[in-house]
Amino acid sequence: MIKLYGYDTINTLKVLMLLLETKVEFEYIPINIRAGEQHKPEFLAINPAGKVPVIFDGVRHQTESNSILLSLAQKAGWGAVDDPNMHDQLMAWLFYQASTQGPHFGQVEHWLRFAKTPNPEALARHRLIANHTIKYLNDQLIGEQYICGETYSIADIALFPWLHIHDHLGLSLEKAEHLACWLDRIRNRPATVRACALFGPRSIF
What is the pTM of this model? Predict the structure, then answer.
């Protein structure tokens, strides 16, 4: 049985969504990052970087959420991950999410919600890039059900959580109707509903 070490975070949600989509049996082990449990010696022995999520498949621990998504999808043969025509596209989206969407949406959240000293210039800069990302994704979804076409994949799962909380970040999808429809499509999947429910109604990942 897979063990998933995580908390109510964007990156843990990704892994939960895929585990529930593939119906893989797993045990969820919460690591309260708000209480600093990720810095305890017993967790650092699992992941010296002190980050969640981590999965353990009985043999080894694996870290980094997008790497975990790729590994789990390959093992399950899920989401056309074994289709050679999809491989490069999926990899590009996973890297885009990790290099662009995640960092800039995260910085919007930091400067909007958590920074002790406001920095309007930094917030504006990251919000500009976040809004560009929204437009870019909306354009990619014109005439498509999912990011890679008709197949729901780990590209969609990787990109979903930050967009799921766009209201919390003060970002609008008003002019991104294709992206808004995609978001609703994923939100209504049974596995997504169950994954979000594990964190409770008040969680903002």
Answer: 0.95
